[in-house]
Amino acid sequence: MSDKPTNTENKKEGRQQALQAELRELVDVVGPGPLVDLLMERAFQLQATDIHLDPLENGLRLRLRVDGMLHDIIQLPKEAAASVISRLKLAANMDITERRLAQDGHINNETLQNRRDIRVGSGPTIHGERLVLRLMPDHKRFTEFGELGLSDLQTSEITKYCNAPYGMILSVGPVGSGKSTTIYSCLDYLNQPEMSLATIEDPVERRIEGVNQIQIDPKIGFSFAEALRGVLRQDPNVIMVGEIRDSETAHIAVRAGLTGIRVLSTLHSNDAVAAIDVFREFGIPSMFITDSLQGIISQRLVRCICEKCRTPHQLDAGACEYLGISPDQLSESKIAQGTGCEHCFQTGYLGRTGIFETLGIRGELRDAILRGASQSEILRLASELGMTTMEESGKAKVIQGVTTVQELHRILV
């Protein structure tokens, strides 16, 4: 195998070197303040979601997560590492003298000149203290269903869930799949003056005018379950529970959905059908699942082809078979790939969109869940009733020229 760098690696190196040069120049001539300010400014410009500062034996490794992928930016010298870590901890109101225990902090949007909040987490490693900064979502983006990547049919289905007079809507998927963004969009859809809305979150990711948002605090025993009990006594129409993590919260949320309240929440589950088994494992009877659940939305995020460097792409026979199209149809399709440019960090991708499946709990599906049908049975029945699976949703986006087969395989396989 050749040790020579690939063309993509060379291109990626060019963008990284520009940012590295900028940071190195500041390291050499100024203190940690301007360096940290520039780092956060560039992270926002690149639409990064996380900043990782990992201690090494001889320095501090700095990486940015852009479109779900971590990119190496620079390794700061050891003498600069402590100052940068201290500067960030001070900004996040954390104890800079405590390096042995994990801490959580918060840099508010006023400090950041109204850009967005940043959540900061620290923890010890064998080489020193590690920091991860989570850049919270922009509350002005992805507030409507049309921005998420849903098909018209899926948008219509979710709107139907939201307009139901009571019951629960679940958004499911692994960490980083966009579940919270989808549930916030449902909350925005329901945010009307005649409605009483409350959220219970950890942390509060977006500030929404007209919604009573509650931050839980496990340190004082104020858990999701405890907060949910309190909110139920405050005459709500809609409650958003940031995440159902345990059996107690699941039971309270299900009961709320049965008593005339619309409940929105997220759950860790591989797909829509698997979420039903998670509820069963929480000890919730099938009758309560079918009576309380209006619908389940399952999703993943795929990277979009960069519009600046996209070029038409000819698929091989195997890829055509996977997509369910014939080679003759390729000339009429929009299938493309990105070659990599300065706008997309030389990856060929810029931005992300969702691929979804929506499972409405009604009719034959309701009967199947009541009789204890397996995941495979429920999935087969849902497909027969017209549910578009995530894979089918992803294939449609490849044919539409939104993403690539390689990206779809990376996310789903």
From TrEMBL:
<keyword id="KW-0547">Nucleotide-binding</keyword>
<dbReference type="GO" id="GO:0005886">
    <property type="term" value="C:plasma membrane"/>
</dbReference>
<keyword id="KW-0067">ATP-binding</keyword>
<comment type="similarity">
    <text>Belongs to the GSP E family.</text>
</comment>
<dbReference type="InterPro" id="IPR027417">
    <property type="entry name" value="P-loop_NTPase"/>
</dbReference>
<dbReference type="GO" id="GO:0005524">
    <property type="term" value="F:ATP binding"/>
</dbReference>
<dbReference type="GO" id="GO:0016887">
    <property type="term" value="F:ATP hydrolysis activity"/>
</dbReference>
<feature type="domain" description="Bacterial type II secretion system protein E">
    <location>
        <begin position="35"/>
        <end position="410"/>
    </location>
</feature>
<protein>
    <submittedName>
        <fullName>Type II secretion system protein E</fullName>
    </submittedName>
</protein>
<dbReference type="Pfam" id="PF00437">
    <property type="entry name" value="T2SSE"/>
</dbReference>
<dbReference type="InterPro" id="IPR001482">
    <property type="entry name" value="T2SS/T4SS_dom"/>
</dbReference>
